[in-house]
Amino acid sequence: MNAPAAPTPVASAALERSRLAQRLRRVLRGEVRFDAASRGRYATDASIYQVDPVGVVVPADEADVVATIDLARELSVPLLPRGAGTSQCGQTVGQALVIDNSVHLNKIVGFDPAAATVEVQPGLVLDQLNAFLKPHGLWYPVDVSTSAQATLGGMAGNNSCGSRSIAYGNMVHNVLGIDAVLADGTQEHFGPFGADARRPMGSARTAQLVSRLFELGASERDEIERVWPRVMRRVGGYNLDVFHPRSERPYTPDGSVNLAHLLVGSEGTLAYFRRLHLKLSPLPKHKVLGVVNFQSFHRAMDSAQHLVKLGPCAVELVDRTMIELARANPVFRPVIESALIGQPDAILLVEFAGDDRARLLERLRRLVELMGDLGLPGSVVEMPDEKAQKALWEVRKAGLNIMMSLRGDGKPVSFIEDCAVPLEHLAEYTDRLSEVFSRHGTRGTWYAHASVGTLHVRPILDLRRGDATKMRAIAEEAAAMVRQYKGAFSGEHGDGLVRSEWVAWQFGPRLTRAFETVKDLFDPQGLMNPGKIVRATRMDEERLFRFPPGYQVKPLATALDWSAWNVQADPVTERTTAPGTGGDPAQGFAKAVEMCNNNGHCRKFDAGTMCPSYRVTRSEQHSTRGRANTLRLALSGQLGAETLTSPVVRETLALCVSCKGCRRDCPTGVDMARMKIEVQHHWQSRHGLSWRERLVAHLPRYATRASRLAPLMNLRDAVPGLARLSERLFGLSARRSLPRWRRDTYLRTRPRTPAAGAPSVTPTVSVRPRVLLWVDTFSNHFEPENLHAAERVLRAAGYRVEIAAPAPNDPDRAALCCGRTYLSAGLIDQARAQARRALDAVLPHLAEGAVVVGLEPSCLLTLRDEFLALGLGEAAQRLAGSAFLFEEFLVRERRAGRWTLALRDLGPRQALVHGHCHQKAFDAFTPVLEVLGWIPGLAVSPVESSCCGMAGAFGFEAEHFDLSMRMGEAALLPAVRGASPEALIIADGTSCRHQILDGAQRQAWHVARALAQALPD
Ligand SMILES: Cc1cc2nc3c(=O)[nH]c(=O)nc-3n(C[C@H](O)[C@H](O)[C@H](O)COP(=O)(O)OP(=O)(O)OC[C@H]3O[C@@H](n4cnc5c(N)ncnc54)[C@H](O)[C@@H]3O)c2cc1C
Ligand code: SF4
Ligand code: SF4
């Protein structure tokens, strides 16, 4: 791994490391992870840096933390507390022993709704706290964009700030107290002090510490007065202004000292936060939004200072680049266009919140008036409706995500992303900084918090090719401007490695010395996260970069086509070079892996899919980020000579259920499911396949024969002892039933009509397209009634239905197959052969206007996804454009006016619908809800669930059974159990239905069966 910084003596030699690990294992109940891959996964955060930590501790409880701190002190090993590791400045990387709070130290310890306070452990995630508070009409209002994964400890560590900081302040304004553990083992509660240091402390050590701090505050008062930036968004340095309030928004109502506020923003350098006491706010009952359209970016920036006078809780910028990105997306286009007047250069989203809706509407009206007074009449789109507002906020978030998904080695780099300047200078500052970018041959997209003068911007730089020089030059010019405007260089994301060297620049030598004194008073041995805020390295220390100049990837011959990632991008136009020209020795695979920028979004727990294995394990290793980092380290030889074929890599991917949640939910589109296929290919080429893997992979080959012997094949679940035998022989869990083979397969029992083996002689004259029904192995052999149902529905609606059958000249007469089971086993050649057969069979029909319609999401969507990565060219693209899931097809037909069938009322019933992960990944879930909505009287509600946990063969594997059930129990199974006995349980995935049957003893249906039942008599 990259050469680490060495700010203090460290036990880094392998021997000392292993001795430390042994000692820790002896005293801790939690995990102690010192292997290279584990360290590597904690060597990065959302910054540009990578530093190999000494090791990682995942404490089981607070006693573990105290024991770790004690041992570290005894052995002089630096410590680095960590939450989600989403810091952008490198504050969570360092040559230290990392303490990961996020796994177990995430409890709400005390809650007083009347006083609106809460006491939490540091690893609790903000969204989880707010979900708990919502029923009480309260929330914790520091609404960082990373709320789904950021921990309260990390937020306090960074003095984080949310979009609504103008109304609620930063962390420092919302922390009441901190129970801290100092590096010397002292435990103390830091909280309100009043005017002086006379409050009794828990020990002589802290009494002395506090009195020295007060002395320091008094002696530096004049310098604080002289130097301190007068903006609310200043998070650099230590908050010495607790002793002489300088923030636009005082930390305490009466300006008195709260020493917890000195700890806030200390980035793990002063103390470990064991508990946080937080101040809560009432949840506003209503919100209204005004979208102000500007023909010039400059005008938008200039207006911010006037808009804030109306008392909004947010003023957020979306610039033209983001508007265009949203417009280019068919899903977002209608939403963004509903907010636009003509072709604006920028829009400002001005939000008002409160309990009195009439007053909010009045403020919206005043916004319209104000814009008229400012010479921009008719520039405001009023959005009083909260649903419309939510959709627009989603667009703003997605725009940023698209920007972050730029392919190639040049990336938008965060290093001056959050400078804060007083609003009256915002327009000039942004103009001048844009000019600086252009002088350096790059460009930045602006967004975010216009209300507080903190605009985010990331110029595109390629640090592998020497752009560190440009980074420093741009930072210097930006800093000069910030100084001129009396702003703050670090206005949101903290100091870390990228900005600590600027602390001296911002505060001058005297306060820098005072900061060093603060550090030494708390942590005389220099053990807490050394090298941050004080005594820092340079921001452009290339040996600390994740991608330093000369970064090398090992050559790799890939089995899938990754050339779309193997490109370079122009930093100004963002246009990419042709696929395959990016110079990746791993043919684009390494660059696809490197798309992970460590933002940590895959650690979220909301309604999306990503990442089910992280959700149940909470282990960094089993998050998408952990996997991407492991692959990156392996591909670049940082985990040893073996790249993809090492057991470390296999172990890291073992719990990835290939749900493709990341393909959709990851802001940069990391598609770990596809990566797993590539890795599995290399693994099996080197190590071969297990019996179980073969049994599953070749299922389509033997399925027809097996179904003829169905009674025999099904004995495993009927004869006592056989299930246990199958577990011993093949590793198939004895606690699972297996899918039941059927003799009456669909292909055997289907009423005889011409198959689509040969194109029809005369092209179809019907306006309705001819349907080629994709008969997947699972539906055909295990649940043929689904295919029958789908066929009945399609025919009843007037469609000609044929089977997608092998081409007449296909020597292999077996049914067509999507190849998914081969792909999962890494048998890519076999999968490609199946894909070729499918293309040969259906393309002539597609040319005649036929479409392919399938039932099983993971099979049908393989035609739209993995087929495109098999190097099959244009033909695969054509099929992808004409392959639909059953319900997608029906929705399409109804929109085109070709579906006219009226369905029958099934009586007042409820349908509880679970979406297959691949449906969600391809935005193909809502059609299920839509078609069910066509059944009169049926109340349709989706289950807010991630993966069901079965995930193909995963849930059948003995070693994964428990985890599989935990995934199911996370949301799906309790929801099914809670449904009324008459409710229809709908799940389109065969494995999802199996999981529901095993876990909740309810028979779920494919949507086709519900529609078939509602067919008119
Ligand atoms: C895409 C993106 C968007 C972001 N948006 C925002 C935003 O809107 N507003 C914002 O303010 N930030 C934002 N950030 C930065 C970051 O997400 C926040 O600072 C977040 O609060 C960090 O939380 P974390 O759990 O990841 O902390 P970490 O990154 O793990 O830690 C942050 C700091 O806190 C220290 N720390 C953690 N736990 C403890 C503890 N128990 N005791 C003492 N110190 C501790 C760490 O040592 C570290 O210095 C963004 C980052 C990304 C990648
Ligand atoms: S995998 Fe995606 S969501 Fe997870 S950290 Fe990487 S970029 Fe972010
Ligand atoms: S495919 Fe699913 S399980 Fe695998 S990394 Fe992505 S989100 Fe996680």
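The first strand starts at residue 31 and ends at 33.
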